[in-house]
Design a protein that fits this description.
Elements lengths: L5 E6 L4 H18 L3 E7 L4 H10 L5 E5 L24 H8 L4 H9 L7 E5 L4 H8 L3 E6 L3 H13 L16 E3 L8 E3 H11 L5 H11 L2 E4 L3 H15 L4 E3 L15 H11 L6 E5 L8 H14 L2 E5 L20 H4 L4 E4 L5 H5 L4 E6 L3 H10 L2 E4 L6 H11 L3 E3 L10 H11 L6 H18 L4 H14 L8 H5 L1
Parallel strand pairs: 1-2, 1-4, 2-3, 4-5, 5-8, 8-9, 10-11, 10-13, 11-12, 13-14, 14-15
Antiparallel strand pairs: 6-7
The structure holds uridine-5'-diphosphate-glucose.
Length: 486
């Protein structure tokens, strides 16, 4: 490792939708920094594979892995070695969130014995504890958001203002009442049921989630996978609320350029099938790597796809390690795949979503509105049909449908579940060029702006350049290495 370069420690959260964008960010950081930065990435053993492409692409002087075991947790299935939310039930997120701070001890020892210790930590938004670690080490922590500036603004608004939730006459929380987050630009409104999780985490509780968000708030800088053309209002709002302008919009981080698209046998088969389809006639359906549909939701969706007659590819997430039998996790209705054979593909393996979305045959994307999928859908310029299931997905849906007016609302978790006739109609219309013309035109425009923002002199390109300059100028901590070597 070169002693003149500034050393940065990157720590992703072990979830697919979190690791991938932070590694994509690290790739861009190194491309922009030439040899003035070196990066160490912390990964658990079973996630090391995800880092390999980066380790192969960049010289070993620029990037290295620090492999630390995932600390145990009573709720994580032991012995099978699953260390990523993609391979675990949705609840595992909380177990990993609780267990992961246990790597602090090994990290502190690594830092103390490193000849050129890092000047900064760049870590996922669910690793608020790294802010305190950075303070202990007298270095800076930058929080990386794989989610939107709008979502960050709403969470900040809820946390700092504690708007009271409307109550029914009997004193219960009125989950169907509407609450306006009035300090966020545009005063977005949400149903109380959409905000309950956020309220439990950072308004009513003094638990670890609130501490996490408070630590993020106090961190030195915000790095967000978004672009100015999409979210300038919320980026500016964050700067004002945080009281500084160390907020960098550096996305969309994963672009489907020729040399980047992830190729594998499963995706290649699907791409061959898509080659046989007409332009924009296929609906791609996916609900991300963490959430799973209930049986009721699967039934409605399967029936809607059947009735619609459209061509489709459905990435179907099967129950994985540690799923409990009695959890309401949807299975496909018997005979469904036979009935749609020839016009619909159900895929259970990992596929390259970016490659599929960018195929000319794909015209619309039924999505849970995870932020990575949202950006990928925009970049691919497909019509996004929204079906959020939890977390920040309601905020992303609001941004797409009500604010940017590029998305079409289909369902919201189990509330507002469409009937299959209505769903079939929307699916058909989503691949007919005569409907949703305004949404499509805006999606085309935003997709172009997204790609432009990452090109030389685009807004995200410039933010990355400025961030690199900021990082290079950080003071280098004094090493205790020689002390340890004596
Ligand atoms: O077979 C698959 C399945 C998924 N993906 C990729 O996996 C990512 C999924 O990310 P996202 O769409 O953000 O969904 P989640 O996996 O659900 O992401 C979690 O993390 C996001 C970022 O914080 C949040 O916005 C979501 O609500 C949260 O569930 C995307 O890049 C997809 O392209 C594939 O490439 N192939």
């Amino acid at each position: 490792m070169a002693s003149f370069a500034t050393h940065i420690l990157v720590i992703p959260f072990p979830g697919q939708g979190h690791i991938a964008p932070l590694l994509d960010f690290t790739h861009h950081l190194l491309l922009h920094a030439a040899d003035s930065l070196t990066v160490t990435v912390v990964v658990t053993p079973k996630n090391l594979d995800l880092l390999q492409p980066l380790l192969s692409f960049h010289p070993s002087t620029a990037i290295s892995a620090l492999v630390l075991p995932l600390p145990p947790h009573p709720s994580l299935p032991s012995g099978a070695g699953a260390e990523n939310t993609n391979d675990l039930p949705p609840d595992s997120f909380f177990s990993i969130f609780s267990a992961f701070p246990g790597i602090q001890g090994p990290l502190l020892r690594w830092f103390a014995t490193h000849p050129f210790p890092p000047s900064a930590i760049i870590s996922d938004l669910f690793l608020g504890w790294t802010h305190h670690l950075a303070e202990k080490l007298s270095i800076k922590r930058f929080v990386f958001f794989p989610s939107a500036a709008f979502a960050a603004s709403v969470c900040l608004g809820l946390m700092t203002n504690s708007y009271p939730l409307p109550k029914t006459e009997s004193g219960e929380i009125d989950i169907n009442a509407v609450l306006s987050v009035s300090d966020t630009p545009g005063q977005p409104e949400f149903f109380c049921w959409q905000l309950l999780m956020a309220y439990k985490r950072f308004v009513y509780s003094d638990g670890p989630f609130k501490a996490n968000y408070t630590a993020n708030h106090s961190s030195w800088g915000y790095i967000i996978n978004t672009f100015t053309g999409l979210e300038s209002v919320y980026l500016n709002h964050l700067k004002t609320s945080l009281g500084h302008d160390r907020v960098w919009a550096v996305g969309p981080l994963f672009l489907p350029t020729v040399d980047q698209v992830r190729s594998d046998p499963v995706s290649d088969n699907i791409l061959s099938w898509l080659d046989t389809c007409r332009d924009s006639e296929v609906v791609y359906v996916s609900f991300g790597t963490q959430n799973m549909l209930t049986q009721e939701q699967v039934n409605v969706l399967a029936l809607g796809l059947e009735e619609s007659g459209v061509r489709f590819v459905w990435k179907f997430k099967e129950p994985s390690l540690g799923h409990v039998e009695d959890q309401d996790l949807g299975k496909l209705p018997p005979g469904f795949e036979d009935r749609v054979a020839g016009r619909g593909l159900v895929i259970r393996d990992w596929v390259s979503q970016v490659s599929i979305l960018n195929h000319r045959a794909v015209g619309s994307f039924l999505s849970h509105c995870g932020w990575n999928s949202t950006l990928e859908g925009l970049v691919a310029r497909v019509l996004i049909l929204t079906w959020p299931l939890g977390a920040d997905q309601y905020y992303n849906e609001k941004l797409l449908v009500d604010i940017l007016k590029v998305g079409v609302r289909v369902s919201q978790a189990n509330q507002n579940l469409p009937n299959s006739d209505h769903l079939a109609k929307v699916l058909r219309e989503s691949v007919s060029q005569s409907t949703y013309k305004e949404e499509r035109a805006r999606a085309m425009q935003l997709g172009k702006e997204a790609i432009d923002s990452m090109n030389k002199d685009g807004s995200s390109y410039k933010d990355l350049e400025m961030l690199v300059q900021h990082l290079i100028q950080l003071p280098k901590p004094v090493s205790n290495y020689n002390l340890f070597m004596c």
